[in-house]
Amino acid sequence: MKNRFALTNPLRSLLGAAVLSSASLAMANDKVVLLTSWYAQAKQGGFYQAVADGLYEKQGLDVSIRMGGPQVNGMQLLVSKQADFIVNYDLQILKSVEQGLPVVAVAAPFQGDPQGLMTHADVNGLDGLKNKQVLVSTSGQQEWKTSPLRVMENSFDNSHFSFVHKANFGLFDQPQPASYDFRETDYGFEAETRVPIRNPEESFAITGTRAPITERHLVNRYYLPFSRRFGCMYPDSGIHHIIYNCATPIDDGRLMLVQWLYRNDSETDCPTQALIDWDAAITAEDRDILEATDPDACVDTRRRVELHMPSDKPGLVIRRQLLGLLEAHGESEVFASH
Ligand SMILES: [Fe+2]
Questions:
Q1: In CATH, what class is 141-328?
Q2: 182 Cα–ligand 1 center, Å
Q3: What is the CA(154)–ligand 1 centre distance, in A?
Q4: How far is ligand 1, taken at its centre, from the CA of residue 67, in Å?
Q5: Residues 37, 6: contact at Cβ < 8 Å?
Q6: CA of 77 to the centre of ligand 1 (A)
Q7: Exposed, middle or buried by CB within 10 Å (0-12, 13-18, 19+), for 69?
Q8: I want to staple 315 with a disulfide (CB 3.0 to 4.6 A). Which of 14, 44, 134, 153 is the partner?
Q9: Phi-psi bin for 171: left (phi > 0), alpha (psi -120 to 50), beta?
C-alpha cells in the first residue's frame, strides 16, 4: 500500500467497518497495522472483534492492532510508516493536510463532533472565523507518575511555594503559609487567600507590575474528584489568570494532567508563549516534587498513615470528601502497598 490513512472519528465502534471499506485499495494478504488512539477500550471493540471473527482475513487483509496511549504520537507513526491506519481526531487531520503530510481521511462514521470552538463575542458562526487566528491545544496535557490526590492536595497547599517555587515566585525567606477562607460546597470547596509573591523581572508581564514583591489574590476551587480551579488576581494590575487542572488517573501510579488558562489581559500585554513558558516552569517544579512521593496516598486519615500540619487543611477536606464520594457509591479505599 502506497498511501497511508488516518481514520477520523471518535465513534470507534463503527471503525471496524471503516477499515474494511478500504480493503479494495489493498492487495490480497496485505499486512496492515492499525494503531488505535488509546488503550484497548469497549468503544474500540469492533476492531478487535473483526480480528477475532476473521472479517479482515475474509477481505484478504492480515490486520494487526496496536494500542495508542499517552505519549504515543499516532500521526508521527503513520507518516513514518510504522502504521497503515490510525484513529485520530478531525482537527489534527486538518492540521496535517495543511502541513502537507501525505495522509488521507478514509472514514468519519460519527457525523457530529462533540468538540467545540470557543470564540470572542463578535464571532457568531464559521464565517466569522475568516482571517481570525484559531488556537488548537497541543501541549496542555502531560502524563505524570503520581496520583490525582497528590496533585489536588499540592495545588491547595500554600506552604510549598517558598521552597518548591523559590526559583520563580516563591518567597524563600517568608515561609509562613497564608491561611485560607474556606467554603465547602456541593461540588467540593472554594478557598480564598492572599499570597505575597516574589516578582522577578521575568514575571513583570505576567503580573502586570514591576514591584519586586506583589500579591496574588486567590479564589481557588476544588471540584470532586480531581479538578481544580486556580483563580488568580493580581490586585496591583487588575490582571486575572484562571487556570484549570484536571487529573485523570491512568492506573495506580500514573495520571494524565490537562491544564488550560483564561486571562483578561491581551497578547500585547503578555504574549501567550511567555505565559505558557512561565507556567510550564512552575508546573514542572510541582511535577518533580510529586513524582518523588509515594503515589499511594492515604485517603482515610483515621489510618494515621501520614501526618499532616495546619496548612494541609485543604488536603484533609479533599480526603474527607473523596471518602464520602467512595462510600456514596458503595466503594472503600484500597491500599496497594500499606
Ligand atoms: Fe506548586
A1: alpha beta
A2: 19
A3: 6
A4: 33
A5: no
A6: 35
A7: middle
A8: 153
A9: beta
pLDDT tens for residues 176-185?
Answer: 777 889 999 9
- How far apart are alpha carbons 212 and 109 in whole angstroms? 56
Helix (H) or strand (E) holding 75: helix 74-79
Å from CA of 16 to ligand 1 middle: 44
Q: Which fold has domain 4-105?
A: Rossmann fold (3.40.50)
Question: Rounded to the nearest whole angstrom, what is the distance from the C-alpha of residue 170 to the centroid of ligand 1?
Answer: 9
Place of cell 507556567: 279
**Ligand 1 centre and the CA of 175: distance in Å?**
14
Confidence of residue 18 (pLDDT cuts 50, 70, 90): very low
3-state SS class at 106? coil
Helix or strand holding residue 197 (H, E):
strand 188-198
* CA 196–ligand 1 middle distance (angstroms): 14
CA angle 187, 137, 78 (to 5 degrees): 125
Q: Lowest-pLDDT range, 49-53, 263-267, 285-289, 331-335? A: 331-335
Domain ranges across the chain: 4-105, 141-328
